Request: fold
Amino acid sequence: MTKILGISGSLRKGSFNTWLLRAAQAAAGDGIEFETATLHGIPLYDGDVEAETGIPEAAAALKDRIAASDGVLLVTPEYNNGMPGVFKNAIDWCSRPPEDADRVFAGRPFALIGASPSAFGTILSQANWLPVLKTLKAELWSGAKLYVSRAGQAFDADGELVDEKVRKQLADFVKDFAGFAAGKRG
Ligand SMILES: Cc1cc2nc3c(=O)[nH]c(=O)nc-3n(C[C@H](O)[C@H](O)[C@H](O)COP(=O)(O)O)c2cc1C
Reply:
């Protein structure tokens, strides 16, 4: 069984990216244990808090879930042509303390997808993650690209992914990324 952890980088209830994550989980076939995580409860990084009380519980829990996975799917919104601060903040917490960062990130397969109402579908946000993943020594899977543009049309009012082309792309993406992650584990 290949364990994939998908993380949505949006906190809002009606988030296209959380819907996309849910669709990725639903698309995961046999042999894939696909878990999901959100960033609720993770406070802003504060070095004083870290020095005084260590890593906050919600961030420590996310760290351990990443470390227990065979691969991580970041489902990223795009804000001002970059990744949202809340998402970067969570990953920053997970990279602390530095001597524990390799356990969590180094050599671990990571992949990126994202959804936005614009015509570009998070291209720049996904690109913005690349130097972060490189710094953390994560193993970026670049076997496919998925930019869900005009997200308001790709999902219905209940958050179901109704664009058949995107559904197929997503299912292939999850299958191929999980295959890569399984190979790395072996
Ligand atoms: C501060 C802010 C900046 C944004 N900048 C961009 C942007 O640069 N490119 C883009 O495609 N959408 C941008 N958007 C629109 C988001 O893609 C849109 O709000 C989207 O629904 C956010 O993802 P979510 O639905 O998962 O919460 C921005 C939204 C906010 C709140």
Residues 10, 12, 15-17, 77-81, 116-118, 120 surround flavin mononucleotide (CB under 6 Å). The CA atoms of residues 10 and 17 lie 7 Å apart. DSSP finds eight helices and six strands in the chain. The helical segments are 16-27, 47-53, 57-67, 85-94, 98-104, 123-135, 151-154, 164-185.
